[in-house]
Amino acid sequence: MELNQSQDHSRSVSSITLNRSMLKQSQYTLSLLNEGQRAGLISSQEAYRIQVEIMQVLQYLIREYTKGESTSVSSDTAQGILTSLLYALDAYTLQFTEPEDAITHLGVETVKNIHSKGIELLQQYFEEAKQLYQTIKILRLDVPVDAYNMTIDESLPVFMNNYDIVFEGQNTMASIDYPLAVDDMKLQGVFYMKQYVKRFLLETKFCRFFLHQDVLFVLKNFGKKMRFNYSIELFNIFELILNNAVFSVLSGGSANQIRISDVQYNELDQLFMSSDPDKRSKLIHKAVEQIQEELDIDQELIAYIHLYRDELIQRVNISAEIASFDKLIIKEEEEREKSIVFMLHEHDRMNDMKMRELVDRIMKSDTKADKVSLIREHVVSLHDYLDLLNSECLYGDEYDSLFAAFWDIELAVFSKIVFYEELRGDTRAFLEIVADGTEAREEWDTRFVEFMQQLDEERIEAIGHLIYDIDYEEISFY
Amino acid sequence: MDFSRLINAIQLSPQSNTVKELLVLNEKTKEYGLVLTPNDVTTMITFRNKVLHDYARVELSNEVLKELIEVYAASPYMDPNHYVETLNDLQEIFYYLRNETEDKISDIKLIDQIMTFFNGPCAGSVELVRSEMEQMAENFRGDLIRGNSSFERDDKTWN
Question: Which of A65, A70, A79 is the mutation pick for testing B, counting most B CBs within 10 A?
């Protein structure tokens, strides 16, 4: 439901002027009626007739809604049905490029007819959205990004299976996590979803121009740079890939190359720092053109890339202002040699029964030392540790005794979980993060933070170093 | 926007046929001595709109009021001296019940239940009907929580 206000501010029809700025994207038909009356394109009698007919259609819809069993509904229900009715009318009136043509149709057609035609259009858009979704399922990227995958597997099907055109046309139904590079959140219902799946597909198609391992390379290094587990974070893949393609072109690489080397990074740094905003903008425009040509991108995708281009220019300018491009240009992050054997084996989980038995034994143990040795003897998996700590089978300083028995690498793993938000993209040193603490959710988190805070600085720093030796991919949080 | 008030008020507008449609029913009810004046009808619709507003409901037709007029006329306890007053009470009980039963029962069934008590054990007392209906609504809600509605189980009885 896109309203074109980019044309003349007002337009003459015969001697009558319609002010387009008075037309609203939401409840467009009502704003047309108001503006049409003001401008004299529609008489007050006609406007009244239309309003009465809207109420008649509403009455009919309420009957349909209650399956003829009742003539009344709650105000909330009626309001929802009226909004859906107006949404269908908008679907019809918005198809006219000129609002004056829409007003003409409102004047000569019955609301019942307009509503039926609006419903037909919504049905058509819904079918188109479903078709786009089917193509997404075929072309989807094989990437371990939960939001991307869950949007395809869970959120979009909710809409595709439950969208109610007649009674809840305006309802977008699904809660979608995956953020698009360019999204118009003002749209509602099938207009929003059609736009969403269309853009989602365009973004996916763009990413498919690149080698799968290169896409994974960018994602992995993005996660490392941001110090978070990219699999569970909300970010847009297309932006990262397009950005790196632009940076590749600007540093002498080809358009289909998204791995940025240190040399390229330094060249880009010099290039952007020696340019003013205008020059940077021109450089990015030119790079985007080169990408279009080299990759032979179709017009629809080009138009979408152009929608995003200004955002990229702005980000480059902001990075230039702070003289730091390291979070924008994703290059290979150094691999540090990992000399320590991971102590918390992920796959050696015990079954539920064994876990319950262990919890019982721990709770029946008399001394802290017994409890700790039971745990250290039987628990080897991180998941089991988390289950155990969440089961609250320890009390007070028993937690301290357990944490005191941990190796530094184990404390580092737990720190990575407990201080996840703080470590995520935070520039503070680990020592500072520990001192400031975190918002604990469970008793064991609180105890863990307190335990860490009483360690000497040298040991905290040592644990902090170990944290950067752990890949988030090594820790499955589920 | 007070949606309930706005929608319900439409039926009182000069262009509305509501008043005329209700006055036509006098042809059927006058043999029982029950005759409504235009003023009576306006009073009843105004009262209904207030009830609808209080219960946050919207009614886009006058079918319920028409049905109540007809079933009241056929009641052994109909009383021309308290015609408008009783109809208003019955309307109030109806919409109370409609809300309390969470739109799960048809209009006809609700009216049937009200009039079964009005004509039977309550002997024309709207106060007794109201009390019975409150108890019924409570039972209904209890059944809903337990997952078995006596309404859905049996069309005729609540118990």
Answer: A70
